[in-house]
């Protein structure tokens, strides 16, 4: 093995400095702010305060993000499964052209769409009433935790589906044909033959979605205004209303822990897979 | 449909009463009908499913479009009371807030692309071609700003920037956007350089070109489509970025997403919807052209 290229390190240094200055340094800053008390010693007092004030929101955030991730996975499996296994060409073509639309739509635009669509007199309820599926008095606003979940799923399903459909397309067709020839239904082929082969891709997509949803500020602010709300909104509120960096950073560390737990599950799964291989 | 109806009773006929000779053709006829019935039913089911899917997919966007042309729309009415382009005029008035925000957004996005490419083209080349220690760790490092709860990072960036006098400045916002987009520009640039056939560079060196000249006349032009794709990614990422601007840019820097947010929270749905539609244009265009820039050979090397 040749020795590392000094020139290469020189080339990568500016990019590395940027990450260091704009990510690692502020990260260190947030950890220090979260764990130091006003006098200067180490303490967990900010976490205690964060927990007292926002324990509901912590649970709320975890609940929303987990449910959204699971639903995203479910819908992505269904769509990618149809794209891979369906024997109806027109359905595949139509679905392939449809599902990608929200992929590059910014979260804030999605939030604005849903803010009007899911409202009590939004287009969704109005359409249901016009179709006779609902009485005007039965309509309710979905602009609470349900709205957040719907927006997240709407926005993230195309991303996970894109990854999953790509992985499914590279699965050996012969195994699928063999399963079908032996009389397995398409659902069974999907669950028992295809999914295990693409589980890795699905997991990566879901972990990335999970962390993305955990970090979005605009959707919970715009879709669900009232309490309880997500941690991102609480952090912004602590900063903008009180200039309270300590509690905000304690909440930040809690969100790192949530994201870190998921990353740890992913890594553990990976290591187990490598040991088996 | 009506032509098939008389055949249906055949299915109900008890098989024991049918004499063996006629059993075979009749059963196949009935199963053919059943198959047709099933396929018709499943086709109907597929159409209904697709319609529901399309409604859920495009309904929110349709509502956005409706709001952008609704001059008056209040509660008991299912559709806008009166339509008009009045708010489009308000938005596109040259002196309006929206035009100023659009200009701010686009200049920030262009500067972000410039900064990101300046640091990531050399970094991408180094990652693709030169021997680096802990290469995987270095690659993952660029992913971190994306794969981390970003709000907590941005509030601290804002705090650091405040002491440097960078909050509320274009420079501050550009730096935040560039760091966030770096994962795309570095990863895609590295993939683009890795996809280039090394023999072409060696050929240029053989006929006497200097390493620098080889890079600028052979390597860089070959990597250009991939780098272009990464530039588009960074541009869009910057154009759509909300959280970082929200903490670092306020109150002086108002980009389109911030204008959208302020209009929406202020109850001005028309302005918010028109701003959202402006933001949608590049996103949708990009979705259509991405495959032209990101070739499969580059795509297969992303993240490696």
From TrEMBL, chain A:
Subcellular location field: Cell membrane
Q: Which residues form the ABC transmembrane type-1 domain?
A: 58-266
> Could you list the residue ranges forming a coiled coil in this record?
none
Please report the record's description of how this protein sits within the membrane. Multi-pass membrane protein
The record ties this protein, via InterPro entries, to: MetI-like (IPR000515), MetI-like_sf (IPR035906)
Q: Which Pfam families match?
A: BPD_transp_1 (PF00528)
Keywords in alphabetical order? Cell membrane, Membrane, Transmembrane, Transmembrane helix, Transport
GO biological process, alphabetically ordered: transmembrane transport
Transmembrane regions: 59-86, 98-118, 202-225, 245-267
State a GO cellular component annotated for this protein. Answer: plasma membrane
- What family does the Swiss-Prot or TrEMBL record give for this protein? Belongs to the binding-protein-dependent transport system permease family. CysTW subfamily.
Protein name according to UniProt: ABC-type spermidine/putrescine transport system permease subunit I
From TrEMBL, chain B:
Q: Which GO terms describe its biological process?
A: transmembrane transport
Outline the extent of the ABC transmembrane type-1 domain.
102-290
Primary location class: membrane
Q: Which domain of life is it from?
A: Bacteria
Q: Which GO terms describe its cellular component?
A: plasma membrane
Q: Does the keyword Hydrolase apply?
A: no
Q: Which UniProt keywords apply?
A: Cell inner membrane, Cell membrane, Membrane, Transmembrane, Transmembrane helix, Transport
Q: Does the keyword Transmembrane helix apply?
A: yes
Instruction: Write out the similarity annotation.
Output: Belongs to the binding-protein-dependent transport system permease family.
Task: Name it.
Answer: ABC-type spermidine/putrescine transport system permease subunit II
């Amino acid at each position: 093995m040749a020795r590392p290229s000094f020139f290469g390190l020189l080339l990568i240094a500016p990019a590395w400095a940027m990450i260091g200055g704009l990510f690692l340094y502020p990260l260190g800053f947030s950890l220090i702010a979260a764990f130091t008390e006003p006098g200067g010693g180490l303490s967990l007092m900010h976490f205690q305060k964060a927990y007292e004030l926002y324990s509901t929101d912590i649970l709320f955030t975890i609940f929303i993000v987990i449910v959204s991730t699971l639903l995203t996975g479910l819908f992505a499996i269904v769509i990618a499964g149809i794209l891979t296994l369906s024997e109806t060409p027109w359905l595949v073509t139509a679905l392939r052209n449809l599902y990608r639309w929200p992929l590059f739509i910014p979260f804030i635009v999605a939030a604005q769409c849903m803010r009007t669509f899911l409202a009590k007199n939004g287009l969704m309820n109005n359409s249901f009433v016009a179709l006779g599926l609902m009485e005007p008095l039965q309509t309710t606003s979905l602009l609470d935790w349900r709205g957040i979940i719907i927006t997240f799923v709407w926005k993230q399903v195309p991303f996970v589906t894109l990854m999953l459909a790509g992985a499914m397309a590279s699965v050996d067709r012969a195994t699928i044909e063999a399963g079908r020839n032996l009389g397995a239904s398409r659902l069974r082929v999907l669950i028992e033959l295809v999914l295990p082969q693409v589980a890795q891709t699905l997991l990566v997509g879901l972990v990335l979605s999970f962390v993305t949803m955990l970090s979005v500020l605009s959707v919970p602010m715009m879709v669900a205004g009232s309490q309880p709300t997500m941690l991102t909104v609480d952090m912004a509120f602590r900063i903008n209303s009180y200039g309270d960096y300590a509690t905000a950073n304690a909440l930040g560390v809690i969100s790192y822990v949530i994201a870190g737990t998921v990353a740890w599950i992913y890594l553990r799964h990976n290591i187990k897979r490598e040991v088996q291989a | 449909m009506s032509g098939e109806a008389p055949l249906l009773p055949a299915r109900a006929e008890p098989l024991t009463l049918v004499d063996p000779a006629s059993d075979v053709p009749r059963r196949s006829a009935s199963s053919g009908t059943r198959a047709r019935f099933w396929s018709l039913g499943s086709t109907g089911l597929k159409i209904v499913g697709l319609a529901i899917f399309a409604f859920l997919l495009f309904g929110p966007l349709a509502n956005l479009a409706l709001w952008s042309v609704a001059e008056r729309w209040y509660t008991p009415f299912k559709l806008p009371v009166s339509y008009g382009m009045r708010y489009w005029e308000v938005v596109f008035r040259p002196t309006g807030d929206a035009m100023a925000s659009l200009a701010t957004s686009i200049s920030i996005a262009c500067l972000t692309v410039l900064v990101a490419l300046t640091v990531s083209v050399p970094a991408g080349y180094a990652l693709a071609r030169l021997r680096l220690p802990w290469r995987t760790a270095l690659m993952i490092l660029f992913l971190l700003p994306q794969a981390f709860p970003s709000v907590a990072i941005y509030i601290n960036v804002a705090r650091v920037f405040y002491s440097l006098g960078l909050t509320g400045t274009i420079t501050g916002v550009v730096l935040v956007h560039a760091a966030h987009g770096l994962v795309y520009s570095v990863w895609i640039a590295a993939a683009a350089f890795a996809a280039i056939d090394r023999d072409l560079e060696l050929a240029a060196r053989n006929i006497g070109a200097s390493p620098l000249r080889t890079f600028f006349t052979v390597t860089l032009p070959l990597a250009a489509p991939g780098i272009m794709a990464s530039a588009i990614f960074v541009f869009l990422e910057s154009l759509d970025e909300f959280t970082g601007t929200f903490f670092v840019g306020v109150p002086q820097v108002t980009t389109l997403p911030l204008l959208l947010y302020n209009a929406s929270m202020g109850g001005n749905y028309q302005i918010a919807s028109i701003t959202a539609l402006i933001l949608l244009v590049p996103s949708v265009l990009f979705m259509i052209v991405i495959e032209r820039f990101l070739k499969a050979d580059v795509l297969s090397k992303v993240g490696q």
